[in-house]
C-alpha cells in the first residue's frame, strides 16, 4: 500500500465500496497510523539489529568486550580501580566509559550483553509460544479428560514459585548435563537458562488459548468444517489457528521482555551467565558493586533496559489495538 | 463455604505434596555430599559410608522422601539429635535444623512483603481510580505514562539507584537493614523504607492499569447507569457501585503477587543485602545446601497455594454472584 492510495481515499468521500481487504492488511493499516506503535516498533527493531550486528559494530568501533583496556594501559584506572576520567571514563575513545576494576569497554560489553540476553529470551519465548499453542489448543479442542489432565498439570506448574524455581533448578539442570567438578561451558549455561525459563513460562499462554479455543470450537464455521468431514488437523490449522494469531502475537510481545528481565535477574543473582561472557544482567550485578564510586556504569545497561521494556510494552498495546479496534484504552 | 474450603485445602495439600516430591527428586540430580562436611579431614570411604547410613542417605530416594514427609508432621530422629514436629531436616552448612533457619529468616521476608504490599495496593488502586475519574484528561495521561515507566523498571536497577541517591548521595537513610519490629519499631520502619518504595514503584503499575480499566468498564455497566439514573450522587456510584465490581481482578492480582513475594523476594533481598528467604535460597544454591533449599521451595509453594485459596474465598465475599461449590 502506497501513499497515493491513502491520499485518494481522503480526497474522494463518496466512492464505490472499497475492494475487500484482508484482516491482515486492515491490521497493518491501523498499526501504521498508530504513531506510538511505529516508534516503539522501530526501537525494538533497533535493539534486535544492535544485538545481531554486535560483532560488526564492535569491529567498526575498534574494541571488544573482553580486552581489559584499563589494565593493559596506564592512566585509565586509578589506584582503586576506578576510571580516572569523570563520569565513569566516558570519552571520545570509550563512548560509554570503561568498567571499574577490569577496565573493559562498556559499550561493547552492553552490546554483547544484550546479544546474549536477547538470544536466551527469544529462544525461550519461541519455545513457550509453541508449547502454549500445542497444550492450549489440544486442551481446548479435545476437551474431556485430556482437558482436565492438562488443566491440572498447568495448575501444578503454576504453583511453583517462579523466581525461586529458576534459582533452585538452574543448578539441577547444569548437573544433569555436566559431571560434578567440571566447568560448565557457556553454551550449556545458555541452553540451561532457556530450558528453565521455558519449563515454567508457557502456562499463561496455554490457558488463554484454551479458553479461546473453547469458544471458537462451538462457532458455526468450525461446525461446518466438521460436518463437511474436515480432519482434525485441518480444522486446527485452517479454522482455529488463523483466529488465534492475535492473542498469540500480543502475548509473545509481552512475554519476550519478561523473559529478558527474568534472565537478567538470574545473572544478577549469580546463577545465570558467568564471566567472561558478557551479559546484560551481570552488568547490573557489577553496577551494584561499584555504585558508590562509579554510578555512571549502571546507567547504561539500566536505561537501555527501560527503553527496551517500554518499547515492547507499547508495541504490545499497539498490536492489540490494531488487531482489535473495539478495545479502547 | 465450608465444603468449598475443605475441598480447596485438600487440593492444595495434594499440590504441595506433588511439588515437594518433584523438588525432592530433582535435587537428587545435584552433586551433593552432606556427609563430607561432617566427616572431617581424615575422611575414609568407610567413614563416609557410615555417616551416609546414619543420615539415611544410602536408602532409595522414595524412602528418603517418605521419611522427610513423616518428619514434617511427626518429627524424626537425626544423627545430630531429635528434630521436633515440623522437621525439615538438618542443614550442615548452617549447623542447625532447617526449621530454625527458616524461622530466623522469615520475619525479614514478611516485613518486606507486607510493607511493600500495603504501599503498592493503596497507591496503585488510588492512582487507578484517580485516572478513571479523570479519564481522558492530562491527569489520566500522566498516571498512565508513569505506570508504564514504573512497570518497565527493575529492582536491580531502581534499587541500586535508590541506594546511591538516598543513602550515599543525600544521606537521608541508612542502608536497608532488618530490625525486629518488637525491638524497635522506628528502626524497623526506617530500615525497610527503601525496599518498600522500590518494590512499590515497580508493582504499583499493574494495579493502576488494572484498576483504571476495570473502573472504566464498570462505570459503563447497566447497574451503575441505573444507579445514576435513580439520582444517586456521582461519588456514591463511583465508590459504592463501580468500585466494588472493579475490585475482583485486583484481588486476584494481589493474591498472586503476595504469594510469590512470600516465597522470597530474591532479587530485592539480594539488591539490598537483606537476609530473608530469597537470599537464603541463593546461598543454599551456592553451598548446595539441599535441605534448606527444599524448605524454602516448600514455604514458597505453600504461600502461593494458600494465597490462591484466600483469593477465591475473598471473591465470594466481594462478588455475591460468585457461588462457591
UniProtKB/TrEMBL annotation, chain A:
Residues 114-316 form the ABC transmembrane type-1 domain. GO terms for cellular component: plasma membrane. Keywords: Cell membrane, Membrane, Transmembrane, Transmembrane helix, Transport. It is a multi-pass membrane protein. InterPro entries: BP-dependent_transpt_permease, MetI-like, MetI-like_sf, OppC_N. It is found in: Cell membrane. Residues 1-20 are annotated as: Disordered. GO terms for biological process: transmembrane transport. The chain crosses the membrane at residues 36-61, 118-144, 156-178, 190-209, 248-274, 294-316. Pfam families: BPD_transp_1, OppC_N. Residues 11-20 have a biased composition (Low complexity). Gene3D superfamilies: MetI-like. PANTHER family: D,D-DIPEPTIDE TRANSPORT SYSTEM PERMEASE PROTEIN DDPC-RELATED, OLIGOPEPTIDE TRANSPORT SYSTEM PERMEASE PROTEIN APPC. Belongs to the binding-protein-dependent transport system permease family. This is ABC transporter permease. It comes from Streptomyces caatingaensis. The lineage of its organism: Bacteria, Bacillati, Actinomycetota, Actinomycetes, Kitasatosporales.
Automatic annotation (TrEMBL), chain B:
The keyword Iron does not apply. GO terms for biological process: transmembrane transport. The chain crosses the membrane at residues 9-30, 112-134, 155-173, 185-205, 241-267, 293-318. Coiled coil: none annotated. Residues 106-311 form the ABC transmembrane type-1 domain. It holds the Pfam family BPD_transp_1. One of its GO terms (cellular component) is plasma membrane. It comes from the Bacteria. This is ABC transporter permease. It comes from Streptomyces caatingaensis.
Amino acid at each position: 500500500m502506497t501513499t497515493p492510495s491513502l491520499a485518494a481515499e481522503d480526497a474522494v468521500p463518496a466512492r464505490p465500496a472499497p475492494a475487500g481487504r484482508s484482516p491482515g492488511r486492515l491490521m497493518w493499516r491501523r498499526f501504521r497510523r498508530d504513531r506510538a506503535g511505529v516508534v516503539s516498533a522501530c526501537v525494538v527493531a533497533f535493539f534486535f539489529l544492535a544485538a545481531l550486528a554486535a560483532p560488526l559494530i564492535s569491529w567498526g568501533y575498534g574494541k571488544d568486550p573482553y580486552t581489559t583496556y584499563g589494565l593493559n594501559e596506564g592512566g585509565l584506572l586509578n589506584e582503586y580501580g576506578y576510571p580516572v576520567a569523570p563520569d565513569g571514563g566516558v570519552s571520545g575513545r570509550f563512548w560509554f566509559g570503561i568498567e571499574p576494576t577490569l577496565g573493559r569497554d562498556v559499550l561493547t560489553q552492553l552490546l554483547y550483553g544484550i546479544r546474549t540476553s536477547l538470544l536466551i529470551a527469544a529462544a525461550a519465548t519461541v519455545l513457550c509460544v509453541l508449547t502454549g499453542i500445542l497444550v492450549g489448543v489440544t486442551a481446548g479442542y479435545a476437551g474431556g479428560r485430556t482437558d482436565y489432565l492438562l488443566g491440572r498439570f498447568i495448575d501444578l506448574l503454576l504453583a511453583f514459585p517462579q523466581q525461586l524455581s529458576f534459582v533452585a533448578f538452574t543448578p539441577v539442570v547444569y548437573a544433569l548435563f555436566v559431571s560434578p567438578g567440571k566447568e560448565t561451558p557457556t553454551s550449556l549455561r545458555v541452553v540451561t537458562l532457556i530450558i528453565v525459563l521455558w519449563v515454567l513460562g508457557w502456562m499463561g499462554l496455554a490457558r488463554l488459548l484454551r479458553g479461546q479455543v473453547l469458544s471458537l470450537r462451538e462457532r458455526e464455521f468450525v461446525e461446518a468444517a466438521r460436518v463437511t468431514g474436515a480432519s482434525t488437523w485441518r480444522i486446527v490449522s485452517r479454522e482455529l489457528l488463523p483466529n488465534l494469531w492475535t492473542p498469540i502475537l500480543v502475548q509473545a510481545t509481552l512475554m519476550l521482555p519478561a523473559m529478558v528481565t527474568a534472565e537478567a535477574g538470574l545473572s544478577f543473582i549469580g546463577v545465570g551467565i558467568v564471566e567472561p561472557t558478557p551479559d546484560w544482567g551481570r552488568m547490573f550485578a557489577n553496577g551494584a558493586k561499584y555504585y558508590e564510586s562509579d554510578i555512571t556504569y549502571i546507567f547504561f545497561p539500566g536505561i537501555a533496559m527501560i527503553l527496551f521494556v517500554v518499547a515492547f510494552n507499547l508495541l504490545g498495546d499497539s498490536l492489540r489495538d490494531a488487531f482489535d479496534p473495539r478495545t479502547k484504552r | 463455604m465450608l465444603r468449598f474450603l475443605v475441598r480447596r485445602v485438600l487440593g492444595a495439600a495434594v499440590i504441595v505434596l506433588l511439588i515437594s516430591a518433584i523438588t525432592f527428586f530433582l535435587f537428587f540430580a545435584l552433586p551433593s555430599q552432606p556427609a563430607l562436611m561432617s566427616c572431617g579431614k581424615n575422611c575414609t570411604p568407610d567413614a563416609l559410608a557410615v555417616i551416609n547410613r546414619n543420615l539415611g542417605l544410602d536408602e532409595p530416594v522414595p524412602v528418603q522422601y517418605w521419611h522427610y514427609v513423616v518428619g514434617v508432621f511427626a518429627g524424626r530422629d537425626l544423627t545430630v539429635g531429635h528434630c521436633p514436629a515440623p522437621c525439615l531436616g538438618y542443614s550442615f552448612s548452617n549447623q542447625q535444623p532447617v526449621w530454625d533457619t527458616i524461622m530466623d529468616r522469615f520475619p525479614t521476608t514478611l516485613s518486606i512483603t507486607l510493607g511493600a504490599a500495603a504501599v503498592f495496593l493503596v497507591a496503585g488502586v488510588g492512582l487507578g481510580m484517580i485516572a478513571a475519574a479523570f479519564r481522558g484528561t492530562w491527569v489520566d495521561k500522566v498516571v498512565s505514562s508513569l505506570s508504564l515507566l514504573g512497570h518497565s523498571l527493575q529492582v536491580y536497577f531502581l534499587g541500586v539507584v535508590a541506594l546511591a541517591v538516598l543513602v550515599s548521595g543525600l544521606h537521608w537513610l541508612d542502608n536497608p537493614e532488618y530490625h525486629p519490629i518488637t525491638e524497635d519499631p522506628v528502626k524497623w520502619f526506617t530500615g525497610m523504607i527503601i525496599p518498600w518504595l522500590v518494590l512499590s514503584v515497580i508493582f504499583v503499575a499493574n494495579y493502576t492499569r488494572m484498576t483504571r480499566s476495570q473502573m472504566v468498564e464498570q462505570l459503563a455497566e447497566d447497574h451503575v447507569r441505573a444507579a445514576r439514573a435513580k439520582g444517586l450522587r456521582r461519588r456514591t456510584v463511583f465508590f459504592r457501585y463501580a468500585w466494588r465490581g472493579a475490585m475482583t481482578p485486583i484481588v486476584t492480582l494481589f493474591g498472586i503477587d503476595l504469594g510469590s513475594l512470600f516465597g522470597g523476594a530474591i532479587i530485592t533481598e539480594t539488591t539490598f543485602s537483606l537476609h530473608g528467604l530469597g537470599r537464603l535460597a541463593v546461598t543454599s544454591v551456592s553451598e548446595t545446601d539441599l535441605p534448606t533449599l527444599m524448605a524454602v521451595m516448600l514455604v514458597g509453594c505453600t504461600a502461593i497455594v494458600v494465597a490462591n485459596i484466600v483469593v477465591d474465598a475473598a471473591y465470594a465475599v466481594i462478588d455475591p454472584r460468585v457461588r462457591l461449590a
